[in-house]
Amino acid sequence: MEDHDCWVQGFKGSAVASGLKKKGGVDLGLIFSEGDGVAAGVFTTGKVKAAPVLLCMDHLQDHRAKAILVNSGNANACTGSKGLADARRCSELVATELKIPRKDVLVASTGVIGAPLDMDAVAGSIPALVKSLSAQSIHRVVDAMMTTDSFPKRSVFEGNAGGKPFRVLGIAKGAGMIMPQMATMLCFVLTDLRIGAGDLRKSLSSAVETTFNRITVDGDTSTNDTVLVLANGMAGNKEPSSSELDLFQGALKSVMGDLSAMIVRDGEGATKLVRIVVRSAATAADAERAARTVANSSLVKTAFYGADANWGRVMAALGRAGVRMEEEKISILIDDVAIVRNGLGVGTEAEGLAQEKMKGREFSLVIELGQGNYEDFVLTCDLTHEYVSINANYRT
Amino acid sequence: MEDHDCWVQGFKGSAVASGLKKKGGVDLGLIFSEGDGVAAGVFTTGKVKAAPVLLCMDHLQDHRAKAILVNSGNANACTGSKGLADARRCSELVATELKIPRKDVLVASTGVIGAPLDMDAVAGSIPALVKSLSAQSIHRVVDAMMTTDSFPKRSVFEGNAGGKPFRVLGIAKGAGMIMPQMATMLCFVLTDLRIGAGDLRKSLSSAVETTFNRITVDGDTSTNDTVLVLANGMAGNKEPSSSELDLFQGALKSVMGDLSAMIVRDGEGATKLVRIVVRSAATAADAERAARTVANSSLVKTAFYGADANWGRVMAALGRAGVRMEEEKISILIDDVAIVRNGLGVGTEAEGLAQEKMKGREFSLVIELGQGNYEDFVLTCDLTHEYVSINANYRT
Question: Residues B226-247: pLDDT tens digits?
């Protein structure tokens, strides 16, 4: 996407280098919505929730928001009551400068856990952030969110509601600590569509289920996972019809699906994006559980790295997934190449073909359980030397 | 342990290079018990069970066994009805040569999944195996079991029952695919104690619970996990008293505990053995679940590798463990150095001290939840570059 695509009517952005990131670079970003719209959020399901998450949950009780302050370099997590006070103070500082109610400001943080936020750095940078807000600078907010991300993540959708064009822009940061049930991941979706708060929440929940809740990098979840959607109504459409709501829901899924795949593709050290598909499971829960278990198996993920069609590891992972299965009914395919039929290996020729596919950057691992009619999927990546390097040396 | 310690009265062993291992070397071992004793087994809890596991479960229905044939190089797993027929044939060949009932022969395999066992290699080697059985050669069986193990694993205990000395010898192979609820792990325990079949089973179940079920290398389980105990009664003791049974149970725990720790220490690519201890959990299940979740977190394990006292990752793992917790009540220690108190970091000085301890080969990570009176532990290792190298290149 070109930078000039990174905009939505009525939204402005800005970013500065505040000094929060040890290595320097932009680390503090602001998004401001000129309209008077609605908002919704989805957050980490872990019990350890960072201060910014607790603040957003509180501020979103009225389903409204006009600004998001985001920083990298420090997660403001496991920081106790001081952390919560710091997050509140951030929202107050932005609110004062923007002349809006404090409750209309959301905050999001990513970075090191357990260290206090450098409030002097944040406070000193907010006037400049507000001053430099512009419709052209939202892409700079993406830069300010990045931690171990190797590329900025953005996706846009353009639609039409009752003759009024609207846009949905999603920006995200991801990389490590990605796992179903929300990742260490921040995602902000901005749209100029006019939509009711209830419809926005429903659309978001539904879209998260098939996008961010279907990705994994290392099975770990984070304290700071946050997806926020702001809709400012500036497209000027009437209250959307049911088919327009469907369109919007599709737009959200498309944008969030793009971002999910980018996050896995950019998983720490990842060289391959793999779609784990489980078919003909006995129940929906079985399909999901089987896909997640395979997607999080270190042995399966290292086999992906080595482009090794080592289906025995897939069988072993299925065996401990706790799902209804009979070994002799299982088929396994890499893309369209069957390597297991009726629980037995098809042969070395098929494995050779499969391994050629596995040398690519993206492929599917399809598992047919032969038990019923349920299907699900999870996106995962390979486990590499680089993953270990990044995470053994993240803080030190 | 010296090789001459690797014996128990009435047990003989032998090993040959049959050609099952691509790289060559001994790969087929036999253990034979001269006595007429009892046996018990514990097996993988995964639903995909290898043929040798199914055979052992069948042959142990009478709680008796006199021989174990073990091979490396091929797991005889995911090999369907042919695999089962092959395992049966192995037991028949050994039984014929030893002139004992087929049901008294157990088999165990480890190695590549999904490839048929080379029956010619096995059949051709069995006469030589039987011929070379000797009390001094049990240590050679350990060599024949090794796959990616970097050292042989043996432990011995000497006790006394009613004035009669007895020994408990354990031998094991481990390395990858190690995880609570049984690992890709073979363990054979041989004792000359006279003991009833029921008591032997009870002692084994109890010992497994606090040893092999409390270790993890990569969270994966295997199709072939097997622990077998043979007791041949040749110590000549009377039926053990209740205190002698306690002594034997302690002996089993000691031997199997030693072997468990060796397996984790020799986890694929591992450089550190870490004991994850969870204290003051609300329930026993919470204590275990919290310990397992932290022990299997890739982010925690890479931090161990980097000797990084990154307690934020521990908190994040606890947060997704699904246990009763309050962030502000949590303490975390490395050995005796507290790095978190009341959910907050103690400071960089404490972390520095903790990091010094983490540079060693063995340390504990202690988590106090402050919820109740339950405690549990799991042994784990670090996640390293070498783990990735080994598993990305295992077959290819």
Answer: 999 999 999 999 989 999 999 9
Structural domains of chain A, with CATH: 3-247 (3.60.70.12), 273-392 (3.10.20.340)
Nearest by Cα to B73 from B154, B12, B6, B16: B16
Look up tokens 């949590």; give the residue.
B330
pTM of the shown model: 0.84
ipTM of the prediction: 0.79
Task: State whether A327 and B221 contact (CB < 8 Å).
Answer: no
Instruction: State the Cα angle at B159 between B156 and B162, rounded to 5°.
Output: 155
d(CA A278, CA B284): 34
How many Cβ atoms sit within 10 Å of the Cβ of residue A1?
Answer: 13
Could you tell me which chain B residue has the CA closest to the CA of A310? Answer: B395
Chain-centre distance of CA A249, in angstroms?
17
Token pair for A317: 């992972």
| Cβ-Cβ contacts under 8 Å for A113 (sequence gap 6 or more) | A50, A75, A77, A78, A223, B310, B311, B312, B313, B315, B316
CA distance B265 to B233: 33
Identify the sign of the CA torsion B385, B388, B394, B396. negative
A396 tagged catalytic: no
Q: Which of A78, A86, A113 to mutate to test the interface with B (most CBs of B within 10 A)?
A: A78
Structure tokens at A141: 């907010």
Using an 8 Å Cβ cutoff, are B39 and B193 in contact? Answer: no
Interface probe, candidates B299, B314, B348, B371, chain A, greatest A C-beta count within 10 A: B299
Q: Tell me: the pLDDT tens digits for A192-219?
A: 999 999 999 999 999 999 998 888 776 6
